[in-house]
Predict the structure.
Amino acid sequence: MIFFEQNDLSFSIWKETETYNPEEHLLCFGGGGNLIEGLYRESRDFLEQYEGQFVKVILFPSTINGYEDFFVRYTDRLIICCREQTSYQKIIAMGYKPDVSVLLTHDMAFDLNVEKYLEKTVPFKDAVNCFRTDNESRDKKYHEDNHDISLTWNGNYWDNICLARNSTRSLISFLQEYKTVNTDRLHIAILGSLLNMHVHFHPNSYYKNEAVFNHSILNMFSKTVFFK
């Protein structure tokens, strides 16, 4: 939504009840880490079901692992934005052309203007744990006093613009009280970096966190450190 507003582009939220013209309408599909074979299938299933309703599908910045048959089958239908080098190279190897059907970009959370969401709060707490409690956790380790706050808004809510903005505000408001965040959640690490916190960033169950760190955070946010 921020991308469309910043670039003065008109858009409407996809609705199953709407009729779309496959010679005119373009689907911009929210990216992220949902196209990971063995962990998530919702995005793959959605694209297979509805891509034919649109002239093209632009997949916004994503991490991709697996689903080779799907991506090879739709090389002429998809324009893919990858948010790190590992996925970018995988997609090129499937037949996508650099700067034509595949682009190397950054996660769109880096475009967030955090100043619009800040409270007048000076950090007064030391550190907070925000580790995953789902299947993407690498070691399933118990962390004392853990707040997997991202799960608060996890689900099919992100087509609600007001809710998306308010959930972002709530995440920032929570983090603002702390000087340090320990996390294996990518977007918590990105928010912490944008807030100039000390971020102790840990791996998830596959390469996503380290790859995005190397591509977008390393040498850009000096207080963010990745722990292998």
